[in-house]
Design goal:
Blueprint (H helix, E strand, L loop, with lengths): L11 H8 L3 H9 L7 E2 L5 E2 L2 H15 L4 H9 L7 H12 L6 E5 H8 L5 H9 L3 E3 L9 E5 H10 L6 H30 L4 H36 L2 H5 L1
Antiparallel strand pairs: 1-2, 3-5, 4-5
Length: 243
């Protein structure tokens, strides 16, 4: 088990069971530097925590995207060393977005299974407002089918527990979409000269290689910038904020 504070209290057997992998795999990832070492407790027993679980989930997602072990090692090596379990979960959500775009039609039961929780009507309404879920042609009385953006579902479900209003989440979404599109256009202009003489197939290959690197760079830079902004905001006095 793990404590509410995230302290490492899982044995290696418990960690492997929670992550759906084997003890041998956990040890192998440790030797490759993909997992930080455990905290050694009494009787020289290693203890693992939420960060280890999140890293294992991220590695699994990278594998599902077709990355080789060597590529995963390079990806993990470039991550900031102070990432929390929550930060790693965000990285995993971004990695999942590398998959080809597409939506699925799910009934309510399957939607809740994918979400990993029971969804009330208010929850579904918030997911619809975030653009994660679109109500199908049938109404609730007809069994309720939903068009679901699978790449965004995990992130949308996590946002259901964020203690801010739906209006703030939607406003944040608008800001992120606006500025991410601007960044994408700017990067496209930078790369346009590099690929202007290439065949279309070469351009698609370059895009496939660049996307994970660019997304990771944007995410890491954004996280650092947001932390700096929050630190500056918290330094302000109540009078400054009110004024």
């Amino acid at each position: 088990m793990t404590t509410d504070t995230g302290e490492p209290t899982l044995t290696i057997d418990e960690l492997a069971a929670r992550a759906g992998t084997t003890v041998r795999t956990v040890r192998f990832y440790g030797t490759k530097g993909l997992l930080p070492p455990p905290v050694i407790g009494a009787r020289r027993v290693g203890h693992y925590g939420q960060e280890h679980l999140s890293r294992l989930a991220l590695i699994e997602e990278l594998q599902q995207q077709g990355m080789t072990l060597a590529a995963i090692e390079r990806y993990v090596a470039q991550l900031p060393p102070d990432l929390s379990a929550h930060d790693l979960a965000i990285h995993r959500a971004v990695v999942a977005s590398w998959a080809p775009e597409g939506t699925e039609t799910l009934d309510r039961r399957e939607l809740e299974r994918r979400a990993g929780r029971t969804l009330g009507e208010e929850d579904v309404e918030r997911l619809v407002a975030m653009g994660v879920v679109e109500a199908g042609a049938g109404g609730e009385a007809d069994g309720a089918s939903y068009r679901v953006d699978s790449g965004l579902l995990r992130l949308g479900v996590q946002l259901l527990d964020v203690p801010v209003s739906q209006e703030a989440i939607l406003a944040s979404r608008s800001v992120l979409i606006e500025h991410s599109r601007a960044a994408a256009r700017a990067l496209s202009e930078v790369l346009r000269g590099e690929v202007s003489q290439r065949a279309a197939q070469d351009v698609r290959s370059l895009s496939a290689h660049m996307q994970p690197l660019v997304v990771q760079a944007l995410l890491t830079t954004f996280q650092r910038s947001l932390r700096e902004e929050l630190r500056e905001w918290l330094k302000e006095s109540p009078e400054d904020r009110d004024g």
